[in-house]
Amino acid sequence: MATAQPLSPQPQSSPVHDFTEKTIPVPIKCGIYGPQGSGKSTSAALMAAAISAQFYNCAPVFVVDPEAAWQFLRRRIFDVEGVELIQRPYSSFKDMVDSLQEAEKMGACCWIVDPLTLIWNELLDSFKQKLGYIPIDKWQDVRQLWNGDYIRCFLNCGMNCLALGRLGTDFEEREETLKNGETKTKLVKVGTKFKAGGGESFGYEPHLLLELSLERKNRKVNGQEREGEGRMVHRADVLKDRTWALNGRTFRWSDKAKYERGGFRQVWESIRLHFEEVQATMQRVSILPGSSQSLISDSGDSEFYYQRRRKEAISAEIKACLDLYFAGRGKEEVQVRLAVSNLIWGVKSKEAADQLPLEQLERGLRILHVYENLPDKKLDDRASVLEQITECVQEYDRGESEECETLPF
């Protein structure tokens, strides 16, 4: 059995990255989705055959095939290229995840799942069979399994990985005004997505994302075009390329009645720039597992929650201090209050102050405390107040003021 040993590519019309025998190509991570018959499986098979034949000495390609459809591609593409296709009809999420290690142990250079949508549905069905339905508090467990067990392995493993999925539709709620003046909310289609991973389309994770669709050329008979009778053309729209090499590009791959050796060229040349840009990094970056549980208290409150509470309390304390010494509603009193606020925080309104960082609010409150402790506060005129506030600011910033606890929590 061939194993994933890198091979210097054969010279082509366009140069590719110059791999040495000691260089293992940096694997690509690609997502492909589209409607039935758009050419997802064939396109993925051509990409995998190209990578195996050109860079891995015809090492095996491993496919998780819950629909048992890849035996046709084995005969038409992989047997012609002399590349072994390891086909596994796994249909469960657990078996798919385990197959990533299985494929690496067997020396595969490419791992494919087709379609990932069925695996996602099986994971949801497994939760439903246990509980009858998926309660909202169990979605966290679903996401943890999906993200931790699968996506991290998909991105971290040393194989080139292709995930194929079915077309999903993104909807958005929009309000529409009727003729009688009433408003009605309706769902409007705003886009498409990779149908796997729930509300978060799996298309977020791969480095290269392609949406496939099918076009049909018009057939000419006696000089007249007959719509819908011509040859099929597969269209690939690049929706995302993290290397920027192919962003926004559209490719068309003609359908072929017979496959000949090296027939992957048309598809391969379309994505070659992405592959080369990935190689230019010359490194694999692994996503490390981690947890933010330390930010969550035993009661379930987050650090953000405590920060927000503290900010609200400090804002209330600041207002109380300002009200204590500058509470007048006359024009002069209001101007003094605004001038003090501007001097300490650089803003005049409470709304603007609420947007300031917590540390800046705490500093201002401590300055007010320094002013509060002055034995000879001069409240008669604006100039005297601002002069004393300026001295308090300078004293605090020099670290000469007596520290006190801002708030009891």
In short:
With 409 residues, the protein is an alpha/beta fold. It contains 11 helices and 11 strands. The protein has 2 domains: 29-281, 3-Layer(aba) Sandwich (Rossmann fold), CATH 3.40.50.300; 297-397, no CATH class.
Structure, explained:
The model is unreliable at 6-22 and 404-409 (pLDDT under 50). The termini are far apart. The protein has helices spanning 40-55, 71-81, 93-105, 116-131, 139-156, 265-281, 303-325, 331-345, 350-354, 358-372, 382-397, and strands spanning 29-34, 61-64, 85-88, 110-113, 160-177, 183-194, 208-216, 219-221, 224-226, 232-241, 250-254. Strands 1, 2, 3, 4, 5, 6, 7, 10 and 11 form a 9-stranded mixed beta sheet that branches. A two-stranded antiparallel sheet has the order 8-9. It is an alpha/beta fold and 409 residues long. It has 2 domains: 29-281, Rossmann fold (3-Layer(aba) Sandwich), CATH 3.40.50.300; 297-397, no CATH class.
Task: Produce the secondary structure layout.
Layout (H helix, E strand, L loop, with lengths): L28 E6 L5 H16 L5 E4 L6 H11 L3 E4 L4 H13 L4 E4 L2 H16 L7 H18 L3 E18 L5 E12 L13 E9 L2 E3 L2 E3 L5 E10 L8 E5 L10 H17 L21 H23 L5 H15 L4 H5 L3 H15 L9 H16 L12
Parallel strand pairs: 1-5, 1-7, 2-3, 2-4, 4-5
Antiparallel strand pairs: 5-6, 7-10, 8-9, 10-11
Helix pairs in contact: 1-2, 7-10, 8-11, 10-11
